[in-house]
Design goal:
single chain, 366 residues, mainly alpha, 3 domains, elongated
């Protein structure tokens, strides 16, 4: 049962192969097994790749099965269409397109399995890339908010500097009227005279202005600080909203690119392995000498070809003969006076009927 299944997988004609030796049958059993297990590997590889894309096991298995059947059909077609003619150059020429197709299939099959085999290493590369993207994202978002925050902080600094400057001026006026009262500066008269009162009034007026300035600037600074807090909150929200995008940076394309950053040699070995598996049936057929199956298949095809050619030539000959006979018959009839008189009589009757019909039509009109 298993033997017949692998023979069917090889694409060989079972009716012809059943009449061949056991060794000839085993050759095609091996080819069919290679085709079958290549399709199994294609199913596994495509299912994993599709699972990475869809993140759904059932969808991945369903579409992976379709892909595996497609690869199975292609491999079976490639192997079954290579004909052994006993001419190596001719056989290799007809195998070149099939080898190219086999290489493409090997690449498609091996890539998802490489992703699975080197999954840990790929995750490490992706982690590094995510960290770089996170830092770059923070820097880019900060460029949107930092200048405005700095401008607001500068405004707070300017308001604080206004208060400090005003306080310095008030303190200087305070020292002035105190020294005037002590008689150590100004008029140098001890006591609170008119000059003292004037300087005290200036100080009190400046102190009132200072209190007013503090009240106004404090209100402004509170408002500015609220704006800064809002901008920082917006900055944090932007980071929170964009981080999941970076965290999900592990799709199929990202993994393929990460695989390209790993050393080439291990991936190359896996690709060469699948390339050898995929092209093995082709090279087995190319390198193997013509066997009984090949001779019988060639004999059957040549017999069908000869029969079809014979039928075609026979139909062409019959057509030529029929045309020649018809030409002779109508040439002989052309000379017969009896046929001429008969057709002349019928033509006269037809013209009479036409004249009568026209006469009746005109009569009805009148």
């Amino acid at each position: 049962m298993l033997k017949q299944f692998f023979i069917i997988c090889s694409g060989a004609d079972t009716h012809i192969l059943n009449d061949c030796s056991v060794g000839e049958q085993n050759k095609y059993v091996g080819i069919g097994a290679t085709v079958f297990f290549t399709a199994i590997m294609a199913f596994i590889a495509s299912s994993y790749a599709l699972f990475v894309i869809f993140e759904n096991l059932y969808s991945a298995i369903f579409f992976g099965l379709i892909w595996g059947l497609l690869i199975f059909n292609l491999d079976r077609y490639i192997v079954s269409t290579i004909k052994k003619t006993g001419q190596p150059l001719n056989e290799f020429t007809q195998a070149i397109p099939r080898i190219i197709l086999a290489i493409i299939i090997a690449v498609v099959i091996s890539q998802p399995l490489e992703l699975k085999v080197f999954e840990k290493e790929i995750n490490q590369v992706l982690l590094e890339q995510k960290n770089e993207l996170t830092l770059a994202n923070k820097s880019q978002i900060a460029e949107q908010f930092t200048p405005e925050i700095k401008n607001l902080q500068n405004e707070i600094t300017q308001l604080q500097n206004q208060i400090v400057t005003k306080e310095t001026k008030v303190n200087a006026l305070y020292d002035t009227y105190i020294l005037e009262a002590e008689g150590t500066a100004g008029t140098k008269l001890l006591g609170k005279g008119p000059v003292y009162n004037e300087k005290r009034e200036k100080h009190d007026a400046a102190l009132a202005e200072l209190q007013q300035l503090k009240t106004e600037n404090k209100a402004k600074m509170v408002s500015i600080e609220k704006q800064i807090v809002q901008l920082q909150s917006n900055y944090n929200n932007e980071l929170t909203n964009t981080q999941p995008i970076i965290n999900n940076f592990d799709g199929l394309m990202a993994r393929v690119n990460a695989l390209g950053k790993l050393p080439l040699l291990p991936s190359l070995f896996i690709f060469l392995l699948f390339l050898a598996i995929e092209t093995a049936p082709i090279f087995v057929k190319l390198l193997a000498p013509q066997g009984a199956y090949d001779f019988k298949l060639e004999d059957q095809e040549e017999a069908i070809k000869a029969h079809a050619l014979q039928n075609k030539n026979q139909r062409e000959t019959m057509l030529k003969t029929d045309i020649a006979i018809n030409n002779r018959i109508y040439t002989d009839i052309e000379q017969e006076d009896e046929l001429y008189q008969y057709k002349r009589k019928k033509a006269r009757q037809l013209m009479q009927l036409q004249a009568d019909a026209f006469f009746n039509k005109q009569k009805n009109v009148l």
